[in-house]
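WARN no homologs supplied; continuing
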Amino acid sequence: MRKGAGKDDLTTISGSEVLPSIDGDELEPRFRAVTGGGERRGIRLERIYWDSLGRMSEAGGISIGDLVYHMAAEMPESGNLASLLRVLSFKWALSRLDAVEDVASLTNLNAILQASPTPAVVLTRERGVKLFNDAFLKMLRHRLPLIDDVQQTARTLRFSIDTQVEEVLSVLSANRGRTLNTGFKIGLGLQALTGQINLALAPTHEAPMLIGYISAY
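OK structure emitted
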């Protein structure tokens, strides 16, 4: 933990795993008075839980005070309201995370790729071809006729783009919603195929990857 660390600072553990750094003041409970259902309550919670309750109330279209009022009404007499709100906010965050990870899974990314009528691939940070669609295989069969097993070859061929992958990831991360067009080259023995590819950040949580739609070859 480093006091004063920014919210995007990360601490590396177990090689590739990262954890966010925590500011010292984030550990201090903050007192707030909220009103809901005609009742006023004073509650002390850490900042992250107030942030979570704010998101919950916004998503539900109610005030934080009303949210607290409804939860307090369901709490057993021996319960602790602050503890209840902490558990509630964490469970809500986990449910949202599960939903996002389901949508941003490699399985769903592959479905997006297969839905494209044009040749498309997913590239890893190491410039490897992670996924490809049927249109990509058809392109290879047509333009690289010496291939015997086109599906197996697609996983091992040399695929490169004219712009460094790290640079593309950096540019697109800084310009969300944008795409980048660059040249590509596929090499297989003495055969080669070149063209243009439109790149975007791949919608996946697995690792930073690029989804590319081949526009000309």
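The domain at 106-216 is CATH 3.30.450.20 (Beta-Lactamase).
OK
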